[in-house]
Specification:
Blueprint lengths: L23 E4 L17 E8 L5 E9 L7 E7 L4 E4 L12 E7 L3 E8 L14 E5 L5 E9 L7 E8 L7 E7 L2 E6 L8 E4 L15 E18 L9 E4 L9 E9 L4 E9 L5 E12 L5 E9 L4 E5 L13 E10 L3 E9 L1 H5 L10 E4 L1 E2 L4 E10 L5 E9 L5 E10 L2 E4 L3 E3 L4 E4 L24 E20 L12 E4 L3
Antiparallel strand pairs: 1-6, 2-5, 2-7, 3-4, 3-6, 7-8, 9-14, 10-13, 10-14, 11-12, 11-14, 14-15, 16-21, 16-24, 17-20, 17-22, 18-19, 18-21, 22-23, 25-31, 26-30, 26-31, 27-28, 27-29, 27-31, 31-32
Amino acid sequence: MFRNVKRKWMYLVVMSVIASLLFASIAVAQDAPNTADDLPGSGWWTGIQLQNVGAAKANVSINSYQSTAGSAPIGKSVEIAKDASVTLLPQDLNLSSGFQGSAVVSSDQPLNAIVNVTNRQAAGNGIAGGMAAAQYQGVNAPATELRFPLVKRDHFGKTTTFSIQNAGSTAATAIATFRVQAGQFTFTTPSIEPGRMVIINPAAAGVPSGNNVSVGSLTVTSSQPLAGVVSEHGSEQPAVLLQSTRAFAPQDGNAKAYAPIIKNEYFNRFTGLQVQNISAATITIDVTYNGSGGTCAGQIFTNQAANVAAGASATFVHLVGQAGNTMPAGCLASATINATGGNIVAIVNEAFTSAFLAGGGNGGRQEATTYAAFPASAATTTVKAPLFKEKSYDKLTGLQVQNVGSVDATNVIATFVGPGGTYTTNPLTIKAGSGLTIIEMYKHPELFNGTPIPADIKDAAGVFGVTITSDQSIVAIANESTYPFGASPLQQDKNNYEAFN
């Protein structure tokens, strides 16, 4: 049974409209009772950013469902102009303190959407001392099988919690299969009504707690289509860290995937790449790293994991001295992941190095993020980022764009649409396989074709939607941080989301 606590954690699904008889559906799920394996503390709340990418004004209807079975939905309607975005906070959705559940949002136009999950005090929400924050992209479509490449239960102080929503038309249970170093463990959920959600954590399946033994992957199946999100967290209260990304559906699997941001002790940050074999046979995983900045610009490095069993995951840690890692310290790269013998899905975790924190860096406070790698089938010549910040209330966003084509991209154009107008760059270049960092654009008037983003831009004027076009296929990640770097009056965890192809 779920308890009413002052915690709000929303989960999101987006289904784009293609024909007039279909509609966009967004589902938002929130957290369950406060146990050792759930989100720590209280004050959790969410903001939803909806972007209308259709051909006309979007009429949007939102129904929020309490987790308690049989309870009536809470309704809300909004309109979103063509090419515009809207941000909805819990109070905008008419949700009272303590609401936890799910929602379905229907639209007569296709939508892009991201969710910001936090416990930071803002807009009348949050808790004193809360610094945790995460963002994640809406899911393209629910599926009867979901994959999560990374599971932890108190692995070096970190645990993963999973929100699973029934996106079907009838009630159904879901079966969770955890494959970790200690073995295989299963858990069957209670019946989930259509539109509602449940929380699954490793403890429910009996996964042992502790370093190494609890690391692995998760597969969730049901007779009804599901949508899901993973959140990685510690146990501190109030929480200061949160990492989230969506689940993978079978259509997300591919023999090749792309990770735009890989860091090897780059400005004291490093990444871990977790790759899950979603095939029925053992595979070999090869990773190629194309240096795009720092000490490795223009260089290529490789790593490999052989004999990865069906359903299992392989981990690549980007720190000097880690097995198979040949990148130098100070390296910023983009990765191409290839599987021989089957298909894969992958995520990337980013954090400060332990040595940096031990030396007093960032006040000894960790900031971490997670994003989903892109299957090769998802790459397109246009990507959209609904939320991009330039000095907006002590926040700034960086976009890392990876050219996944076979030749250099020489006509990459970024268009920023904000309250003060539209700003378009001159053509930019990205080498094949490599990445381009788009950040602090107000400092670079030379990059713009015509009027540049003003140098004095800030706060509400510094919020943009971004569209990037290219003559080669691209993928992109949006990273948000407090700003100015290292000197912001605001303390908060870092967060990111996958741009929309």
